[in-house]
Design a protein that fits this description.
By secondary structure, the protein is mainly β.
Length: 122
């Protein structure tokens, strides 16, 4: 059984920064890829960034150059550093334990955290 707990969401002004954390329990963390998703009101959940078990990263075009995903396997934690935040980054952010398809696309798994709210004011 795996549990994921996100933290770090807050209200911030446009141009500001936040760091989200996703801490996992259970032994599957080190062997798994992790994805950060977000869901804004009235919109579908979208993949923002992912990191493989070896540290290879991928980003959505909308956050490339502003967000950085990283992992600390010793702490079973994945981070999402978010800089130059924009009002359109406002959403609930979720982490997910998953893997990759053969074409390299992130494949979401069944384990999700409860989400953390990020609100960016203009």
């Amino acid at each position: 059984q795996v549990q994921l707990v996100e933290s770090g969401g807050d209200l911030v002004q446009a141009g500001g920064s936040l760091r989200l954390s996703c801490t996992a329990s259970g032994s599957a963390f080190r062997a798994s890829a992790i994805g950060w998703y977000r869901q804004a009101p009235g919109k579908e959940r979208e993949l923002v960034a992912s990191i493989s078990r070896l540290g290879t990263t991928n980003y959505a075009d909308s956050v490339k150059g502003r967000f950085t995903i990283s992992r600390d396997n010793a702490k079973t934690t994945v981070y999402l550093q978010m800089n130059s935040l924009k009002p359109e980054d406002t959403a609930v952010y979720y982490c997910n334990l998953g893997g990759y398809y053969s074409d390299g696309a992130y494949r979401g798994g069944n384990y999700w955290g409860q989400g953390t709210q990020v609100t960016v004011s203009s």
